User: Fold this.
Amino acid sequence: MPTLGLGLAAVGRPAYITGGRAADLPDRSPDALRRRCHDLLDLACRLGVRHIDVARSYGRSEEFVADWLRERPEVPRDLFVASKWGYTYTGGWSLTADKHEVKDHSLAAFLRQREETRALLGDRLDIYRIHSLTPDSPALTDTALHRALAELAAEGVRIGISTSGPRQADALRAALEVTVDGAPLFSSVQSTWNPLEPSVAPALAEAHAAGWLVVVKEGVANGRLVGAEAPETLRRIAAELDAGTDAVALAAAFHQPWTDVVLSGAATETQLTSNATAASLTLTERHLAALAELAEPAETYWRTRSSRAWS
Assistant:
């Protein structure tokens, strides 16, 4: 059965592309976001969440998780901590930064960020993913990088990728072919999948069949599937099931046969509690067919996503 995970993209730094941030996070000082992260992590553990997702570019998310783990030795050892390298946070804790993150998939970037992650998470790092791998990334062909990643895998860290953009499926299929000394390098993928953007589904099924851990991110489309932005079809199904639109959207991901983990990107405890109800929500074939009709062309979806303001 798929399980719920918690991603900290929205609360590890002051600015992100989700909506409603001024109301959800009125105080976005480092101390306030540290407290918010810790509260969400505490609640996640009570809800049975065992997969936490952070990244080097999510501001101070790794630091916040490291502090939380140090302060709570009772945290179950079966908690998976996944991080990502390949983007550097450059926002300077500002809402109006010209650039909030910069992409670099080079070997040098990996070696630097690996040590930054190790310094914070130590032996609690379970999965390290290339952040937003695309088909044109040098990370797909850099054999020196592949060997460095394989060395980390030999230490017990699972190596994976995350995908973004209209060609997610192409990037994933290319990654499925990457080997080191004849053995597959990658064994985990985190991809954007939701009723508006389901195009990567066939490739995720292939990854699942190959034994990869498949994690769904952006299940509520950065806010487009909640509240006033939610399509009428989604609101109608939610009313019928007496559930939140967020729960229905995430439940659609739970119903996919290739899903292992569905990430919540909650910024508040109320949101996380509502997201968690998705795991027990039953969608009928009629519901799933209606949600499938919400799908947009991938290019349209990603163009809309890229136009969302950081706030």
Remarks:
- The chain is about 40% helix and 15% strand.
- The longest helix spans residues 30-46.
